[in-house]
Amino acid sequence: MIAEGLEIPEASEFSKNVKALAQSVLDAGPLEWTEKDLQRARYMITDYCDDMKTPRSPEELTATATQLYSALADFYFRAQKLWSAKGKSIPRRLENTDPEYAQKFSASFKKLFERCDPSSVFTLAEETLKPYGGFLFENARADAPVAWRKPIS
Description:
- The protein has 2 domains: 1-30; 35-132.
- It is globular and about 60 Å long.
- It has 6 helices and no strands.
- The protein has helices spanning 13-28, 35-53, 58-79, 90-97, 99-115, 119-129.
């Protein structure tokens, strides 16, 4: 918004500098994900898919699918060292980045939301995660930081 925004009431030296700074941040790209970030995202996507295999109700399926929609898009972008997208900008950003993937993504979630059929989304998630090690449940471990742990008396 800052890099592309219209200065009000008018452009100034300050606004030009701020816009240039914002553009340089965008051009530099996001911080690269650590291995821990990648594992955490793989685990969450795996967990959402697993929850959708046996939902308690169509409403639960929809609720979980909405979480997966954002998580899978975020994973797709960030794993490739690209800026992510949120909400309504996801389809546009996917289309601008990879039209073929965008089509698969949209068709898979459309089938899920219209017919309560997650099979295409499972396939999409598997294909998206495969280059990074695939689904992650077995041997997954996330230890709480030491400061969060209760001392043993």
